[in-house]
Amino acid sequence: MSYSISQVADKTGLSAFTLRYYEREGLLPLIKRNSSGRREFSDADLDFIDLITCLKDTGMSLTEIRHFVSLTLQGDSTLETRLNIFKQQQQAVRRQIEQANQHLAKLEYKVRFYTAACEAGTEAAVSGDCELPGQPIIIDNSLRINKAHTSN
């Protein structure tokens, strides 16, 4: 089946401008054109666009992606090099996930901290070390602000 650039834009979430840009930049070198010069994308092209999006979304630069595409065009003689590219990107994504999990743990602590601070009416009543995952939030009841008395 073949798809127009607008259909591919709808299917991939990329704009037609981005798809044209990718083609100009050598990321989509095998896009066929019909007799009137319009692009005709195949299912294989859609899969390749999905791969490019994946690589880009995981932090690979367009220059690195272009290098990968050029290796793909060279055929089976570059299989090992391409495998190594994917292994390196896989490691990069694992580091990103680890870092994101650390950020998430800190954010979860801060949500608990500020929930307790809102409940206590002051940050001063709340303590705990956000650097330690699962660290309990401690509220000093003597520092609580009674909201009923302060609003008058």
TrEMBL record:
Gene Ontology molecular functions: DNA binding; DNA-binding transcription factor activity
Signal peptide (from-to): none
Keyword set, alphabetical order: Coiled coil, DNA-binding, Repressor, Transcription, Transcription regulation
Boundaries of every HTH merR-type domain copy: 1-71
Name of the protein: MerR family transcriptional regulator
Cross-referenced Pfam families: MerR_1
PANTHER family documented for this protein: MERR-FAMILY TRANSCRIPTIONAL REGULATOR (PTHR30204:SF69), REDOX-CYCLING DRUG-SENSING TRANSCRIPTIONAL ACTIVATOR SOXR (PTHR30204)
Source taxon at top rank: Bacteria
